[in-house]
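Milestone M4 deliverable, item 7.
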Amino acid sequence: AQQTDQERSKAGNQIGDAQEQPRPERAPVRIDELLDHGERRTDGRAEEAALAAAQLKKAGERALLLSAHDEAGTLFQRAREILTGPEHTVQRLEIEVQWAELEARRGTYTRAREILLPALDEARSIGHKLLQATLLGHLGRIAGWQQDDTTALRYLQEALEIVRGANDKPALVFVLRQLGNFIHRSDPDAGRK
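Output delivered:
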C-alpha cells in the first residue's frame, strides 16, 4: 500500500522520536527500521531526503551519546549518502561534524581531521561562517589533543573571531570552552588565573 506524504512524514518522525528513548535491547531493530525507512523516504525529492537525513542524524547523535559508535557510524554514513544535492550542502556538512566527532571519540584523530578539513574548505566556499567556526573549533580541539599547540591555537583563534562577529552564543561558548581547555592543558598555571 502506498503511503501519502503526510503518513510517511509522521512515520519518520515517530521512528526518530523512538530513537531518543534508550532501549539498548531493541537498538539493532530500531536502527534497521530507521535505515529502511530512510531508504523509502528518499524517492528523489530533496525535501524527503532532507527529512530522512535529519531523522538519521538525530538517531546517530543519540547513539553517539550512548557510546553506540558502530550504530552512530552506520546512521551518519547513510544520512551522508542520501544528501547528494547542492541544496543539502549545509545539512551534509553538519553531519560531517558529527561523523568527525565519532572518529575523535574512537581516538582516530587523523580520520577526524580527514573529514573536517574538506568540510571546512566547503563551508568556506559557500560562505557559511558559523559552520566554519564549528569546524575550526573541532579541528582546534583535535590539534590540541595531538599536542600540536601552534595549529590548535590558530584554528581556535580563527573560530573565536568568527563567532564573536556572528554573535552566536552557543557557538561562542563552544569555542571559548575549547580555548579554555587548550590553555589549561598547554599552560596549567595560566589556566588557573
